[in-house]
Design a protein that fits this description.
mainly beta; seven-stranded mixed sheet; 11 strands; 51% strand
Length: 122
């Protein structure tokens, strides 16, 4: 059984930082492309960042220069370092895994975590 579990969410003030983690079980982690998505209240789920098995990354324009996605294949864990946080970053953050090629589309992802809530106060 494949499971993904996010952690590290919380409430911080504008300009603060958080680091999200996503621990996985049941995956051949290094063979999976991984991504972070987020969904703000009343809005659609948006792609945030993606990373392939060897560390190649891509970020959404809204987070470029502020968020960094990374992975530790030895620990089967995905990370999202979030700096210079803004109120518009408030959302539930989800990690996702894809067995196929690199993608930033949520309908391409094969497995999902349940999310961790990030709240940024102004």
């Amino acid at each position: 059984q494949v499971t993904l579990m996010e952690s590290g969410g919380g409430s911080v003030e504008t300009g603060g930082s958080l680091k999200l983690s996503c621990t996985t079980h049941g995956l051949v982690f290094k063979n999976n492309n991984m991504g972070w998505f987020r969904q703000a209240p009343g809005k659609e789920r948006d792609w945030v960042a993606a990373i392939d098995g060897v560390g190649g990354t891509s970020n959404a324009d809204s987070v470029k220069g502020r968020f960094t996605i990374s992975r530790d294949n030895a620990k089967n864990t995905l990370y999202l370092q979030m700096n210079s946080l803004k109120p518009e970053d408030t959302a539930m953050y989800y990690c996702a895994a894809r067995r196929g090629g690199f993608s930033c589309r949520d309908y391409d992802m094969d497995f999902w975590g349940k999310g961790t809530l990030v709240t940024i106060s102004s």
